[in-house]
Amino acid sequence: MDATMLYPLQPEVQVVRQVELDGAAHLMLPPGVRHLDETTAVFEAMLHGWECQQRSRFLRTETIAPRVRLIRRFAEFTGQYPWQWGPGEIEAFTAELVSGPAPLAHSTVRGYQVTLRLFCEFVTDARYGWAAECERRFGETPIQICHEWNTVAHLVELECRPGRRALTYDEVQALFDAADARVEQIRSRGRKGALAALRDAAILKTVYAFGLRRQEAARLDLVDFRRNPRAPDYGGFGSVQVRYGKASRGSPPKRRTVLTLPELDWIVSLLREWVEEVRPLPAPERHPALWITERCGRVSARHLNDAFAAAREDAELPAELDLHSLRHSYVTHLLEFGYPPLMVQQQVGHAYQSTTALYTSVSDEFRNRLLEQALTGHPELWETTTS
């Protein structure tokens, strides 16, 4: 007779072995320690454990710190601890974020919800032991509160505000003219700051001429500019080595080489003047940064935003435009110059061509020119459209 007939199989019991994972409860809460405020101590240990778990994934402090602040903010909003949270709390929190005179952007709300989901995944993962610890101490366990029915769906690639767009050629020129005019205004008044204004104007033009992100421009060093054997007339400014490109999570900054293009070669004389004549004036000695302050320090990335905002206001451009709009303009204008999409993608450092396409908003004039070329080369198309 089959043994299974005599001894029926017992249902399987899932056993989770306690392992030495960064952020595990038994590592964050040593045994034998009694806390005066146990709930606060466990919550702080949870947050510290989540920080350790993220560091083990090589996430940067700039990524971890805002996440932890959001969890504290959510806990303060609910007035509860993670083992007391339910789906209703995330729904009320989201309603708060999108209400009022200044509702948050779609992408920001979705990012907050993703962070809360990640934290709940961490504290409910049996391998870290937080659920069992909360059950033992408080008789309650944390649950996942973010689900497909109460969070924002990621349905489109680009979630930024519609106001962020590429500038037209006239708007770019107006922005640069306004930045240059600030230099003359300061000089005519005999006030300090003309050198800083000249630097800010040069930064904005460099951001546009190479399609740089804010951090990429702020972290440029003198040694990042190289000769291009195919463009000897540009001297040492034939290309720029971007060493602090946007990194994927858990990865170091991406590097790329951006070539100086003939349509934007006016940047060569500007950079040469800055490096050889203007930059040495504050006596920076051996400081490696391309953009330096009056006190010979590196210009911060935040200052670049302020420089753009000041020039935008003087040029009377729409307030929703920001520094990143110059990068959008670079992509759009390169395509209008006739460069193939693959080269544009490599110039701006996008992993996928679809991302580059999202930056593109070619002008009506350019599209009409393409249409005219198509109709000239194929008269039958014109006959079809007019029939």
Strand order of the largest sheet: 1-2-3
Sheet with the most strands, sense and barrel status: 3 strands, antiparallel
Order of helix and strand elements from N to C terminus: HHHHHHHHHHEEEHHHHHHH
Q: Write out the CATH superfamily name of the domain at 169-322.
A: Intergrase catalytic core
- As a percent range, the share of strand residues is under 5%
Distance N terminus to C terminus? 87 Å
Radius of gyration: 28 Å
Report the strand count: 3
The coarse overall form would be elongated
Estimate the mean pLDDT confidence.
Answer: 86
Give the class from helix and strand content and strand pairing.
mainly alpha
Describe this structure in words.
- Helices cover 52% and strands 4% of the residues.
- It has 387 residues and is mainly alpha-helical.
- Among the domains are: 25-138, DNA polymerase, domain 1; 169-322, Intergrase catalytic core (hpI Integrase, Chain A, Orthogonal Bundle).
- α8 (169-188) packs antiparallel against α9 and α16 packs across α17.
What does this entry show, briefly?
The protein is mainly alpha-helical and about 375 residues long. Helix content is about 50%, strand content about 5%. Among the domains are: about 25-140, DNA polymerase, domain 1; about 170-320, Intergrase catalytic core (hpI Integrase, Chain A), CATH 1.10.443.10.
